[in-house]
Amino acid sequence: MARSFLGEYKCSADAKGRLMVPSKLRECFPEGEQIYLVRSLDHCINLYTESRWSVFEEKILSLPETESREVRRFFYSSMQEAEVDGQGRILLSVGLREYAGITKSVVALGCGDHVEFWDEEAYRNYTDQARTASVEDILRRNGL
Known about the structure:
Helices cover 38% and strands 24% of the residues. Strand 7 and strand 8 form a beta hairpin. A 6-stranded antiparallel sheet has the order 1-7-8-4-3-5. It has a two-stranded antiparallel sheet with strand order 2-6. The protein is globular and about 40 Å long. The chain contains 6 helices and 8 strands, in the order ββαββααββαββαα.
């Protein structure tokens, strides 16, 4: 089984949209697997490896057609294949950067099966909200 993506890292994007992926996260990329970038519901960018995207994709494709259309449009229309260059960077499309509001300062979050890239200010605003109570409620409802 592939290693889980863990941790929070500060990184930056340059004017061309190249984003330095922290080495601790790159170490979790399985050799030879494609990497995908896709928008998230939380206005950040998700990075999936091919095998982990496949698990998510199976769930999307198992939805009834009437429910899956919007979901497929949301994810697949924004999705891009990515490659890590020799300096450990990936190129973010203009559309994904605009969607996530990413210009320079970025926070990369390991989220188990994927990585999230947030504009640093947007992430700080998100974490400033009362998230602990929300997580606690979810855990309680699910017996955790």
